[in-house]
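LOG
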Amino acid sequence: MIETWRWYGGLDKLSLSEIRQTGAEGIVTALHEIPYGEVWPVETISARRQEVEAAGLRWDVCESLPLHEDIKRGSGNLTKIFANYRQSLANLASEGINIICYNFMPLLDWTRTDLLAPVVGGGTCLRFSAVKMAAFELHMLKREGAEADYPEEVLSLAADWFNASTEADQTLLLNSIMAGMPGAYDRYDIAGLRSALDTYKDLDAADIQQNYKRFLDEIIPTAESLGMRLCVHPDDPPRDILGLPRIVSDTADIKFILESYDSPANGLTLCTGSLGANPDNDPVAIAKQFSDKVHFAHLRAVRKDPDGSFEEAAHLEGDTDLVAVLDVLLQEEAHRRATGRADHLIPFRPDHGHELLSDSERGTFPGYPLIGRMRGLAELRGAIRGLEHQR
């Protein structure tokens, strides 16, 4: 397996020289400064690649070439947007970047309510509190019908939290929920979020699924002709958020996507943390079922609560057996090698880490500290070596 590390380019507080010291071989990055829907110029891609290579690393995965919201809504000038996406793919391929991770989550990327939840033994982690999310939806956003998405006990605790909260508490909650949005763009305030949600009010899950299928029909033939591997990232968390349908949340969703356009270019980013946050999902079983379509892996674990809350656990703790997942991926690599696939190695990165020791002083992106992820990478590396030794 190929050890990689997510890096946000000029927006990142970590340097490439620091990343190289973690032992990672490859970089996972993107051109976050370019607005969604615009073409990524070859010159800009080449400059990023050369910057990475000058540090003794490789740009192994593009995460992500993002989808404009019009694609998800099925609105606007899609002819131009799809043409731009295809051109960006061609430009990336010309620079040797062939694995593209992307997601189909409406409006928001990963969603958390707490960015600095305390961890037993010290440090902090990302957390999703069902109670705080309900308080946000019902009492701050005042989303119509939100109460139907939460059990009664959560609604009661949400009212208690809101009634006891200060303006600062509410601002912190809004900022935490917005923190998962990638890039260097303004986050929504309450009014802006209400307005953005209105653009999806007439769409249900079936509508968004069909818009997704159109994306695959428009884009996968180009990706296949370029020898590229596109791999969708599961929803995080794998449940509807803010009334927005999430359609990459479980086995049935993944099966629909991969069967909607059967091609080596249409694959999966196996994110064990995202999938593991749904108590009905078995990430090990999902890894086995779709192993031949896994082009990239995000490896992390979460610890779930009965009310739907969860938090990031240490990589080899939590509710998902990551050693078993690694065993599945190593078996898949061996199968690919035996069948003569040149790209038999699967890149992975230690996803989300606890803020440990001096991490809190760095001001890195939430979930992407240096020491916490380096601990995760070391643990995963050790598990891989142990499994390889058994073979």
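LOG (cont.) second protein
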Amino acid sequence: MKILVTDGMDKTALQQLRDMGHEVTEQFYAPEELGAALKDFDAVVVRSKTKVRQAHIDEALKGNLKLIIRGGVGVDNIDVAYAREHGIEVRNTPAASSRSVAELALGHMLSCARFLSVAGNTMRNGLWEKKAYGKGIELGGKTLGIIGYGRIGQCLGQMASAIGMTVLAYGAHHEPGTAAKDGTPYVSMEELLQSADFISVHAPAADGPIINAETIAKMKDGVVIINTSRGANLDEAALLEALNSGKVRAAGLDVFAAEPTANTELLNHPHVSCTPHIGAATGEAQARIGQEIVSIIAGFGK
């Protein structure tokens, strides 16, 4: 097959594809150029930067495109139903990056609890504000509420349990009072919001923000909010207001409503720990993603 890789891919996996006889092109296309480019390929591999929308698919139908692969978990940057309606298969690599994203979420939890981000910045500016940042909290003994208890949520839950946290889960398709395979109890959204000291979001993009003014109002005072899922799941204006009022103690953010984000007021808030959408950006995760992509292509059409 002729394969287009738009957003980068593990080098070992790229070589494997070429050794299998596929013609692989690595090139990013601007949105207005992508559709025309897709006509020349049988498959395209994207990550989060490239968006494959209906107009691109319409152009691609003039050529030979048969397969779209998202190297990662979510496929909200692809018009999946429209592609499949027109005979183009869409696949992703849901398992490969779970641990990397979960570890980043845990890292943000620790950063929020102990002021790691802001304290480090002040030291680099020549300050020694031991008193200001000497009022941290421990994760052990606290309750972590996880919204969306799929692969990533479960991985984070296991890590949190190991350091002594109580874990509660909310799943849109799971009844409160039941338990996940690892024994974590499913609760209602209401109970999770009211009970959790830390809340971490691992749900797919919803129709509207999951974390908004209404849900924040139901949370404990001093709650810590972590979002490594999708920027659309969190109302940034409502979060900023809650940070300023003290309702929310701190927030750890890897994803934003618009990326790259221009929300400098949020980024510069002293109680925000932030990263530029790097949840899956570890060497181990990228190698696993590459191997999943190779397996998908090797088995395609068989």
